[in-house]
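Long-time lurker. I teach an intro course on protein structure, and each term I like to show students one example going from raw sequence to a predicted 3D structure in token notation. This year I'd like something fresh instead of my usual example. Would anyone be willing to generate the tokens for the chain below so I can use it in lecture? Attribution to the forum is fine with me.
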Amino acid sequence: MTVHDIPSTSLSSDDVVLITPIIGAEIRNVRLSGNLPEGVIAEIKSRIARHKVVFFRRQDHLDDAGQESFARLLGELVPHPTQHIREGSAAILELDSGHGGRADQWHTDVTFVPAYPKYSVLRGITIPETGGDTIWANTAAAYDALPEPLKRFADNLRAVHSNAYDYASHRPWATEVEKKHYDEVFRSKVFQTDHPVVRVHPETGEHTLILGSFVQRFAGFDRFASIKLYELFQTYITAPENTVRWRWKAGDVAIWDNRATQHIAVNDYGDAHRVVRRVTIDGDLPIGPDGRPSLALQ
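-- Reply from a regular --
Happy to contribute to a lecture. Here you go:
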């Protein structure tokens, strides 16, 4: 079916195809642009809140300007705090596998700042013939799956997130080019933020887990205990039944609720070239179940 502009102000139920019951839906018959009707944008936001990540195939008409024009309908664009944006763009970050951009650890985007992005909009540019998928996990469903004693424990737990972590120990297989890229670009300015491990989603009211690879330690715990706690929580987040995997094609667009997901780019494509471009939407300050907000430490 040819992708087209939707003439009405809302999506038909036939245009939304669930990928799994827990996370992920493909939205069809929508040509993304900066002039979509308000009703369609409202429905897209509603679907993101419900399914956590939504996918659009065959958006080959989009260039950088078109991606940003559409993304502005979701909120205010916010550039990455340390990495360079693409020349001529307002906030587009290019992730190029040839320059260290593989993002092959479970993470939520930019949690080392207090009000990290609420949405991320990712567009496939150059996609390997095989491999290079992205997997997303539902952190609200992960919280719901915790045993009650672990929920109560998490509700009162805080964690320090930073972009200044030991990249080599996290990725011992990384090339020297990737390590140098991380040190020179990603750590050009160091951030540290104290987050609640559980945040109350400002729109859905769900409790979601704020974790991922930017976590340095848990408040009140030493490094060894922090690692064990992290592994425990991540087991629930990345459980297979809690994830969705997307096989990219050039021109695809994925949009996710960065407040209720983690994701990882699967690094299985060797020397093949993979390029994706991301724009993020300004977020809100996380609030824990106890009413305490996130706090910048550095």
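Some talking points for your students: Helices lie at 38-51, 64-71, 139-145, 148-155, 167-170, 176-186, 223-237. The chain has one domain: 13-297.
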